[in-house]
Amino acid sequence: MAPGERMGLLRWWLIFLLLLLPLGVLLEGLLTNELGADPAKYIVKELGFWAICWLWLTLAVTPARKFLGWRWLTRYRRMFGLYTFFYAVLHLLAFATFLVGWRWDILLTELTKRPYIVVGSLALLLLLPLALTSTQGMQRRLGKRWKKLHTLIYPVSLLVLLHFVWQIRSDFLQQLIFAFLLAILLGYRLYLKRCS
């Protein structure tokens, strides 16, 4: 293996493990009983938080490539997207297991009382086809339709932000930061589209 290939492989594994790190920290906190007074709520919240982080990171690839010249980052966009889906699924599973207990009557009540759950579920449903068609084989098979399908990431990001904002109880700083970052990420794309 050439030194360049070795470096590329090492970087791939490093990024792969870094994206997995929050889950490892969460599991370690669970095993050592350090997740606070309400561990179930904390797990659901943390998994959702990291799903948003990785989604924003996925959206940041194009601006980072075009504005900063970080072409190497494009190789990891698929990984970022799949990790987004992975954490979002874990977020939903944690919610269904720890907060609802897989009881459909409670889930239906939650859906009617808390519209942010509907919005979050819709975002996850829209992420599903993106995850399923993320392979190079699917990209070749779908051709131009692949790119069009993957523009779903934009409405997904808006739904995710809405899901996040609707949960504000008192402190809205975190949501404000995420909204500001998304405005930059989507605004930059609009700017590029207008200039092309």
Automatic annotation (TrEMBL):
<dbReference type="InterPro" id="IPR013130">
    <property type="entry name" value="Fe3_Rdtase_TM_dom"/>
</dbReference>
<comment type="subunit">
    <text>Heterodimer of a catalytic subunit (MsrP) and a heme-binding subunit (MsrQ).</text>
</comment>
<feature type="transmembrane region" description="Helical">
    <location>
        <begin position="116"/>
        <end position="137"/>
    </location>
</feature>
<dbReference type="InterPro" id="IPR022837">
    <property type="entry name" value="MsrQ-like"/>
</dbReference>
<feature type="transmembrane region" description="Helical">
    <location>
        <begin position="149"/>
        <end position="166"/>
    </location>
</feature>
<keyword id="KW-0408">Iron</keyword>
<keyword id="KW-0349">Heme</keyword>
<keyword id="KW-0472">Membrane</keyword>
<keyword id="KW-0813">Transport</keyword>
<keyword id="KW-1133">Transmembrane helix</keyword>
<keyword id="KW-0479">Metal-binding</keyword>
<keyword id="KW-0812">Transmembrane</keyword>
<dbReference type="Pfam" id="PF01794">
    <property type="entry name" value="Ferric_reduct"/>
</dbReference>
<feature type="transmembrane region" description="Helical">
    <location>
        <begin position="47"/>
        <end position="68"/>
    </location>
</feature>
<keyword id="KW-0285">Flavoprotein</keyword>
<comment type="similarity">
    <text>Belongs to the MsrQ family.</text>
</comment>
<comment type="function">
    <text>Part of the MsrPQ system that repairs oxidized periplasmic proteins containing methionine sulfoxide residues (Met-O), using respiratory chain electrons. Thus protects these proteins from oxidative-stress damage caused by reactive species of oxygen and chlorine generated by the host defense mechanisms. MsrPQ is essential for the maintenance of envelope integrity under bleach stress, rescuing a wide series of structurally unrelated periplasmic proteins from methionine oxidation.</text>
</comment>
<keyword id="KW-1003">Cell membrane</keyword>
<feature type="transmembrane region" description="Helical">
    <location>
        <begin position="172"/>
        <end position="192"/>
    </location>
</feature>
<feature type="domain" description="Ferric oxidoreductase">
    <location>
        <begin position="47"/>
        <end position="160"/>
    </location>
</feature>
<keyword id="KW-0288">FMN</keyword>
<feature type="transmembrane region" description="Helical">
    <location>
        <begin position="80"/>
        <end position="104"/>
    </location>
</feature>
<feature type="transmembrane region" description="Helical">
    <location>
        <begin position="9"/>
        <end position="27"/>
    </location>
</feature>
<protein>
    <recommendedName>
        <fullName>Protein-methionine-sulfoxide reductase heme-binding subunit MsrQ</fullName>
    </recommendedName>
</protein>
<keyword id="KW-0249">Electron transport</keyword>
